[in-house]
Amino acid sequence: MAQITNIIPALLTNSISELTEDIDKVSDVVDLVQIDVVDGYFAPYITCCPAPQIAAAEIDMPYEVHLMVEDPITMLNGWRIAGAERVIGQIEKMPDQEAFVKKASDLGLGVGLALTLKTPISDIAPALVNSLDLVLLMAHEVGVQGVSFDDIVLEKISQLHTLYPNLIIEVDGGIDEETIVKAHNSGASRFAVGSTIINSDDPQAMIQKLASLIR
Fold this sequence. Notes:
Order of helices and strands: EHEHEHEHEEHEHEHH
CATH class: Alpha Beta
Mean pLDDT: 94
Helix content: 25-40%
Number of helices: 8
Shape: globular
Largest sheet: 8 strands, parallel, barrel
Strand content: 15-25%
CATH topology: TIM Barrel
Number of domains: 1
């Protein structure tokens, strides 16, 4: 079965056992999952699994981490040791975007920057764009799954795609069969999808369906 590369299961949980169960649900059809890391300060929620716990779990699946935390640069080495392929940091709690990107790159990690729904794309340091794997745009409140997609993000996607047509734009939040098409048509090419996949009766079939809608 061909691996789907543009649908990224986004896993938000406070249980390592639930995390591994969710990975098992999707591992046959995708080449990567995203582990959401929330520290309770950036958003009113705490997820499981600091980097050493993930390392100990020996997850047999490539993964990236979305760091919704205070000063994410402090976590980079831990996630390198744990085996993450990419780190995506929220710029709102990042004192120095350049330092974050440089350290991640120096550690051999792929790197992306993420923006909340309310953060303008002008807050991205333009000089860093060519050093990024992607920019992630949140389409709803940070750290919560199962809430509605906000169409405000569509204009941000369009603006970012116009400015940087070769940049990979990932959208995270409220992605379903309807909103994935709208986001794709606005210029997004990668989609972090949480509850729509994990809560479906057949997560693998849902991933395949979402991918088919944006071919």
